[in-house]
Amino acid sequence: MSRRRWLMAVAIGAVTVTLGWALFAALGRQLASPTPDAEPPAPVADVSSTAGPRISAILYFVADDGVSLVGVAHDVPLGATPAAQARALVEAQLGTEPPAPLGRAVPKDVAVRGVFLPGRDDAYVDLDSAFVSALPGGSHNELLAAYAIVSVLTTNLSPVTRVQILIDGREVETLAGHVDLREPLRKNEGLIRTP
Amino acid sequence: MRRLFAFVCAALASAVAVATLPAQAPLPAPLTLLSAQGRRPLTVVSVNGTEYLALEELAAGLGLTVRDDRVTGGTTVTLRARSAVLTPDRTVVSVQGRLVSLAAAPLRQDGRVLVTAEFVTRVLASVMDQRIELRRAGRLLVLGDLRVPRVATRAEYGANAAQITLDVSPATDATVTVAGGHVTVTFAADAIDAAVPTVPVQALLQSIRTGEGAPTLTLVTGPRFASHRATTQAVDAGTSRLVIDLMATGAEGLSPAAAAPAAPASTPSSPSSPAAPADPSAGLLPFDPASADGVRTVVIDPGHGGDANGTEGPGGTLEKAVTLQVSRKVKALIETRLGLRVVMTRDDDRTLDQDERAAIANNNRADLFVSIHANAAGRPTVKGAEVYYLSVDRADLETRRRLLDPAQALPQLGGGTRAIELILWETAQMRHLEQSAALAALVEASLRARVEMSPRPVQQAPFRVLVGANMPAVLVEIGYLSHPGEEKALASGEHQDRVALAIFDAISTFRERRERPAP
């Protein structure tokens, strides 16, 4: 093999390796799990007093039978982007007190670390670990809490059909030992009662 | 470049040459003559693919007299007044004046007369007036009425667990002992006729070998061997099955077996006795194929435990304590009234992750999985029992495709393929959903007859513990600890008895329907 050919082979090999590395790195970034916002957890917004344009959304609370979710219309700040709207919806779900005789499905005073919409159908809701520690246990409470978060997004943000709850930026198996949260959940119509 | 080309050509040529070399016939393994007087090895020679034995060596072992007739060229074998006359290269032999036709004629080679095993079993047996049986698997010639059961050995092995299944025919008592780190099975017999599989040397199981001159079979274990468990099952009237599970040290994700104390050094195992009651800490236990259509093993999963208290009632009653108490009652009912094997995922206050619970059920090849929990609601008036089975709304097309493709052919050692059933852990429960729904309905009906039910008595939910269970599985919420009155009831033995009886009845009914389906 001549020196020229040898040099060409080396050059082609180097270009191939470089392109492969670049492609691998880019794909790696693309496929990586969403990371939480760099900013510290935001305090729960006082949704009812937030100024600016608002939309009417359905929030979910525990029905008076104690075992179902029921949707209630409530004004929520209009988000500038789908992700901002999703975050506003989740914050409203967490921060809004239910009208009597309904009950809370989710714990109070839990910070939303981030809401991500990486694809058309899926949403990722990253909550502070207080969401877990404030749950009183029991599969029933866990189901209602998880599906209240799922329902508020799938009902009000039409492209979203599946929601995965993250805790402190990480995927969790369950909140309290029951509901499988390793993958996004779809809305559970069987758990929702018509008002 | 030319050198490289020449080297490649030479390598290819060598590979082709090696691949096309004719396979050399391996030297035949010796036979062992087994009699009441003991064992005697017999040399075997192969001539044109047929195995032969030296007649003189045989005669010495059997106490026969062999005499050549130089005039006729024949050979006479005599025992007392009985004799047989054979002629090399002729397939007809005279035995006590009666002609016996053989598939292969005796041979004369290097001054020796060679005969086949058929000659032994048909001709020499007549001369001796005794039964001589050839056991090809164990390379045995059995003389007389000795107890030599056939032992078919099957091994499934991995890094963390191994299961050795011995089908013994006729059914024979056996004792399993551990000595020197090895597990030895001693059969109540004069010898065993066993062909043992060759297993690759691994850290848990290194080899399987039969005893030299003893009716034993030894599992040579490696450094990771921690404990064993032996159980006996009746396969049919004449065959017993002994299953030995080897558990490794530090085996995670499979079972808590590694953490369990080592099994007793000696485990009597009789086909006439039922398998020992399941140890709650049991990890791997064998599967009885006969149970495929019935219910033989039930796994009861007391919810939470250890660091996970579960929910807590206003009076301080912990979910993990109530679930364990009720589970123990269900276990006792099933064992005493149905005689089924019951395995508890935990029988004390220990932490188990969700996959461990399903793994215990799967590794025990359980036929039913019942997870027992107590519930809580924000509204203290909510009460009643509920039954759940898995919801499947997250099943994607790929997992469905796998479910519809139950067997895949994988290459196996030594060539060929073996059909392997591949089940994704995440989809294990999906194919049992119909049965799980049926079980849930039975549990609900049975509970309803004894205790108050919730307004939503049967539901589907994506409960983590049910996902990986590869059998019909339900999660029973036996009541709400958040309801003060129900908390008191759930803590009482009387209410627990009612709940346990309800679950037991449902399992019993499910079993009856599964084993005797409606026409």
Overall pLDDT confidence of chain B: 79
Largest sheet of chain A: 5 strands, mixed
Average the pLDDT over all residues of chain A and give the rounded result: 81
Whole-number radius of gyration of chain A? Answer: 22 Å
Tell me which protein chains meet in the greatest interface and how many residues each side has.
A-B, 31 and 41 residues
Q: Give the strand line-up of the largest sheet of chain B.
A: 25-24-26-31-27-30
Structural classification of chain B: alpha+beta
Task: Summarize the amount of helix of chain B as a percent range.
Answer: 10-25%
Number of strands of chain B: 31
Distance between the termini of chain B: 78 Å
Main sheet properties of chain B: 6 strands, mixed
**Distance between the amino and carboxyl termini of chain A:** 82 Å
What is the beta-strand fraction of chain B?
25-35%
Apparent shape of chain A: elongated
Number of discrete helical segments of chain B:
10
| Low-pLDDT segments of chain A | 22-49
**Number of H- or I-type helical stretches of chain A:** 4
Helix content of chain A: 25-40%
What would you say about this model in short?
Chain A has 195 residues and is of the alpha/beta class.
Topology:
The complex is a heterodimer of chains A (about 200) and B (about 525).
Chain A: H1 3-31, E1 54-62, E2 69-77, H2 82-95, E3 112-116, E4 122-127, H3 130-133, H4 139-156, E5 162-167, E6 170-171, E7 185-186, E8 192-193
Helix pairs in contact in A: 2-4
Chain B: H1 2-19, E1 31-35, E2 38-42, E3 44-47, E4 50-54, H2 55-62, E5 65-69, E6 74-79, E7 82-86, E8 92-95, E9 98-101, E10 107-109, E11 112-115, H3 117-128, E12 132-135, E13 140-143, E14 150-157, E15 161-169, E16 174-179, E17 182-187, E18 193-195, E19 205-210, E20 216-221, E21 225-236, E22 239-248, E23 266-269, E24 297-302, H4 319-338, E25 341-344, H5 354-363, E26 368-375, E27 385-390, H6 397-403, E28 407-411, E29 417-421, H7 433-448, E30 453-461, H8 464-467, E31 473-480, H9 484-491, H10 493-515
Parallel strand pairs in B: 1-13, 14-18, 24-25, 24-26, 26-31, 27-30
Antiparallel strand pairs in B: 1-2, 3-4, 4-11, 5-6, 6-7, 7-8, 8-9, 10-11, 12-13, 14-15, 15-22, 16-17, 16-23, 17-20, 19-20, 21-22, 27-31, 28-29
Helix pairs in contact in B: 4-10, 7-10
